Amino acid sequence: MPGRPGSPGLLRSVFRRHAAGVAVITARGEAGPVGFTATSLTSVSADPPLVSFGVGTGASSWPAILGTDHIGVHILGEHQEELAATFARSGADRFGPPTVWREGPEGVPVLDGVLAWLVCRITGRVPAGDHRIVIAEVVHGDPVSAGRPLLYHQGRFTALRD
Predict the structure, then answer these.
(1) Do 70 and 121 meet the contact criterion of CB atoms below 8 Å apart?
(2) Beta bridge partners of 153
(3) Looking at CB atoms within 10 Å, which of 7, 74, 80, 119 has the fewest?
């Protein structure tokens, strides 16, 4: 069975079938806080504690990610579908009401009400097609609350089923 030739459409079609956890990445930009929804968050190493995520070089948040040393990583709960949608929506006022946030360690915007958050120091930005894979070392964090994670599957936000 030869399958279909590799293409952006094939990749999107296959990954619609892959369930992923939902995170919001934040940073302090020159004009204020920036952030975006990410489903590419990965734990890379325990020692040192490293994470990675992808960001498009055409994304509005990319200049801030390129120009900063620290980023925030927020694991969203199943109750935060609207927050995920806000940070995924182009042109949205991501840090205006109803988003609740504060300045955290290293000046990074930290979102309230998330399952957990980390502040990380960027150690690398690796070119990968129209994206960069950002590698960052954990320097602060808190597994804030218990709860179930928000997932992304088949092009929509969803939750775990028992």
Answers:
(1) yes
(2) 156
(3) 7
